[in-house]
Amino acid sequence: MNSTRRTSTEPRLALNEIQGNVLPGFRKDRQRFQFFKLVDSASARPWLQGLHGRISSASEVFRAHVAWKKAKRRLGREPVEIDFYFMNAALSAHALRQLTSNEEVESFTDDAFKVGLAPRSAFIRDTAKLGEPGHVSTWVVGGLTKPVDLLLISASDNNSLVEGHAQELRGEAEANGFTHVWTDVGDVHRAPAPGHEHFGFRDGISDPALRGRRPKPPHEFVYPRTLPPGREFAGLRREFASPSKRLVWPGNFLFGYPRQDQDDPTKGNPADTPRGPGWSTNGSFLVFRRLRQDVKKLKTFADEAAASLRAKLSDDTIDAEKLLALLVGRWPSGTPVIRSPHRDTMLSEDARNYFGYDGPLGPALPGDPQPPGIPDPNGVIVPLAAHIRKVNPRNEPTDLGSAFRTPSRLILRRGITYAESEDDHGLLFVAYQSSIMNQFEFLMTNWIHNPNRPRSDGGHDPILVQSPGGEVVLRHQGREEVLRVPGGWVIPTGGEYFFAPPIAFFRERMARTE
Amino acid sequence: MAVFDPTAGNTEFDSVPGLREAWSDYIKEFFERNLYGPGSDAALGELRRWGMSDSDLRFYSPASMPIVAGSQARNVVWQALPTSFDDDHGAGTPELHEFLDERQKIQGKRTRPQDEYCEWVVARDAAGQPTRIVFTSEPPEYYDFLYDDPMNVGRAKTRKLLLEVYKERCGSPTVKLKDLEVVKEGETSYTWYNEWNNVHCVHMQQPNNTLFAQVNIAARACILRRSGGKILTDAHALILCAEYGEPSRQSDPQIGAVVNRFARENRFLTLENPVGLYMTGLNTIGWSVRNEPDADPQTWWRVLKGKADANPESAMIVRAEVAPPAGSHQTLNELLVAGVPVRYGAHVAAHIQMRLGVLASEPQSTMSAPRAIGCTKDTPTSSMLSMPRSRRRRR
Question: Is the pLDDT score of A460 beyond 70?
């Protein structure tokens, strides 16, 4: 292929234009997701135009995070007296067709976004059985009966701040061409533990870091490079910002920037930038999925399966906690099973993402008490189908070829737990990317729900599997044990594909009347 | 007695006495050349350059050695849609899909660019709408074999069969032998780029989509490699070091990595019989037919050659088509892939899974592990060449 066009110069990211939940992510404990249907685009345009000054930019959110961390260091505790409020907005393809033009939306090359999530629900392996829980006809937001066009995300650690702003926004939207469809309340304090999803596992701890520099001199890296000094880390430094954060070129998440060269992670490829209308630069696709979690069903399965395996394999160490750790690939603290096969050793934030399946990423980290792991090419320590191994096989080869191709399939996850009632709690899954087809949908169809990819003879992702025919291959003491996994403990109850436009879209494109 | 059956278990060779056995000898020769051939692009040649021997080889020909007891079938899988051109055209763009649907100049030949051991041709109506897409993973050697008759079965008979096969694949009685030939410097030979093949996708023609390449990759990838003092395990590093196959494909680096992993685990391995690169099926989950909610999109997929299987991991499909069901007046763009009409071959190829079957033994605990050599471009050092086996291993 033509390698002369590749670049190793990391671009300057327009942090004042990129929405702050894309980069670096709100990371706020309370978030309100308000969904609206567009009914009058002529009224909506000027109101959306006026939002441009209220949408939190990446620059603003980065600054807030820095201030929060400084205060935390100074106080020696979480600075509860500091409140930040952030707001972001995203629009469906249907809305963008009304607000701009059909031609502009058609210039996106991502068919998934243009079609929307509802017709693709069965494709990403949601149940196709009409009326069954999870079927697109039963969704409370989006789907066949509750179409949505606008998503407003309000976020803060302060609940009353979120509520107040969200109420105000809702009133404005309803007065300006939108009808309210649904509201979800994300709250990390209503999960088993903050930062843990309802099954009890720490979540959102392995997002990639974007390559790129700040727009203002001295143009520092947006994601600081914090690997330990020393020649032994030189190789890692080319591909990682920190021991826990793999670098990925910004075009994999943002319009207007080069995507990663698929066979050289140190290079960006200007010939492969996401395609869309002129105003899409600095925007990103947002996938929203409302995922209800049936905790009792999963725990019951784990109890029964662990008992059965104990008897079958004559291994008394297998209990429900260990089995779940094997199926997830991590212990509840986030400690990876590959580094800690027998128990949860509560590794530090950096250490718990410092691992591969084809051998350790590099030498032991300073102060890291545990060896960095051993190669596990056959899934003896961590099943090939373990959830985190399915969605990110890290340094092992896959059906795509070499491991270099995996980072370009990753997504930026910004989800938060919700707990609407005793029977309705789960995850408000939010993911940003520059291609829904090649990233979110690829992960769902090619890896999560395919028993033979990214690796043959692995099985289905046991956490997200929907079909009763799911199975996971466990390799234990030289034996292969096929564990039947009925699944159905993660039930989609809503969702849509959106575009999170750059702030300039609101400021400039929405100022035009056509 | 034949050791290697015709690709996909095809029975066409049965009409010519001795042809099945001749094919087996022909494939046996592929194994011999790639394992023990004279050049350094053969596995043993590479090992010898580093002062090592066939005791460091874990790939074998079932014609020379019985299948190792306890061997299990393992698949290497990938999707039929190439990714080699994603960097130049953008993954998933219409520009890329148009590029892939047309023949392109590659390695000096005007050929189909689809390079994942599965090629396709899209037939379109006068309005440019797709009417039928034919996929093939039939190796060109099957056709070379019939034209050249390298094992001297009887050229008149094998070429007659070649014509019959072409007529059947193309659905036309008018194919003539001279249509399949090219004359160059006074020599007449069979050409993969004949118009019948170009239009009807009879067999693969991309220069690297061959059975020979498949055997070569497997044979050479089973050699352990060392670079910078480390045994290589990464798929990309291995293919660059050993220079087998194309690094930009999905298939070649992965085949190499899997085979190399088995060799590192001290397993013996060979290829599944019949040797071939197979489609396992078309996944139509989430597909639909416009205005026909009860229609089964799977009825639009028809296997034309080879074997479908209830377990796709055992399927051996080498020719198939996507087209409206017989008797219907629908067009192909009424078939919707997750709500999007089929417009290009790539829309379907993305949902066809390919596989290569290998037979891998259990790790050989009573044998010394194979030793690693350097990369193809490295010069063997005299210390490596003179080192006794046990010492080399320790280093």
Answer: yes
